[in-house]
Design goal:
- It is a single chain.
- This protein is α+β, with helices and mostly antiparallel strands.
- The protein has helices at about 5-20, 130-135, 150-155, 160-165, 175-185, 200-220, 230-235, 270, 280-285, and strands at about 25-30, 50-55, 60-65, 70, 75-80, 95-105, 110-115, 120-125, 255-260, 265.
- It has a 4-stranded antiparallel beta sheet, with no helix packed on it. A 4-stranded antiparallel beta sheet has the order 2-3-4-8, covered by helices on one side.
- Strand 9 and strand 10 form a beta hairpin.
Length: about 290
């Protein structure tokens, strides 16, 4: 799933390629992707793009005196920029194409989604705050005012494990499964640690790991073409998605805990005092 660094890189890319250009056509291919109907998609046509913003994992294209096109790429969605779009309208079918935006000079972009679980979402709204997912977002962890005290206030009284708290978009915006693994590894913290039990030293370590991990990921992605962002993210991850590989810090084997629709990765030596975490789902499968 694209998370804060990749969506920020897409925002930066689109800010360069879209702002000042006029949308001439918005073509829905998968009708299920459109989550609003008023204003209609046609309200974007003939409008100049004035700004591109990011809200957590949401992309927000603002038009002059017109609506916003807000997109959430979900788990398998992506944006593919094309200097020259194909001639003729796209044909609905079983392919990954969900929506096409064409500009006056023949360029534009496609929103695509792989797999069978279609969760990519597009909204056309007068104000991004009308999108429920945007309205419930917590603070952005890279915002200037997000300091250690702000993180401590968010985690105070939390009964959830720190892994789940970091992924909660209403608590902190933009962090998903991959970067929560990376942050906790950098902080040398167990993903099962109760979020509300952190001492001052642990809070300091977590805050510094959070800011450094996300900042470095954004910097790595800056200037990378949209089509290469996924590969850039995967190549830089230290523990997420690397089950069975050696930890780049200590050399221990990276372990995994599986859930119904996701998994987490961690290093026992760096994060859990050398003890593997309970993985009841895998234990059942091995019986």
């Amino acid at each position: 799933m694209p998370e804060l660094p990749e969506v920020e890189a897409l925002r930066d890319f689109l800010d360069e390629h879209l702002v000042g250009r006029v949308i001439v056509r918005v073509l829905p291919v998968a009708i299920s992707v459109l989550k609003t109907y008023d204003p209609p998609l046609t309200a974007l046509e003939g409008k100049q793009v004035t700004a591109v913003a990011r809200h957590g994992k949401f992309l927000d294209l603002a038009t002059a005196d017109g609506p916003h096109l807000v997109t959430h790429l979900a788990r398998a969605g992506w944006l593919q920029w094309k200097d020259r779009l194909p001639d003729g309208p796209p044909r609905p079918g079983k392919g990954p194409l969900a929506l096409r935006v064409a500009l006056e000079d023949g360029s534009g972009f496609d929103l695509t989604e792989a797999g069978t679980q279609k969760r990519l979402a597009v909204y056309v709204v007068a104000d991004p705050a009308e999108v429920p997912g945007v309205a419930r977002l917590g603070p952005d962890p890279l915002a200037p005012g997000f300091d250690k005290a702000a993180l401590a206030a968010l985690l105070a009284g939390e009964r959830r494990r720190i892994k789940g708290a970091l992924r909660d978009q209403s608590l902190i915006a933009g962090i998903g499964n991959a970067y929560s693994d990376e942050i906790l590894h950098a902080a040398r913290m167990s993903p099962y640690k109760p979020a509300g039990s952190l001492g001052d030293e642990e809070l300091t370590g977590l805050y510094e790991a959070l800011r450094a991990t996300l900042t470095e990921a954004v910097e790595r992605s800056h200037g990378v073409a949209a089509g290469r962002l996924k590969a850039e993210k995967k190549s830089a991850l230290r523990v997420h998605g690397r089950t069975g590989e050696p930890c780049p810090v200590c050399g221990d084997t990276i372990r995994e805990v599986s859930f119904s629709d996701s998994s987490l990765q961690y290093c026992p030596t760096c994060q859990t005092g050398g003890k593997p975490l309970a993985d009841r789902r895998m234990s059942r499968l091995l019986k």
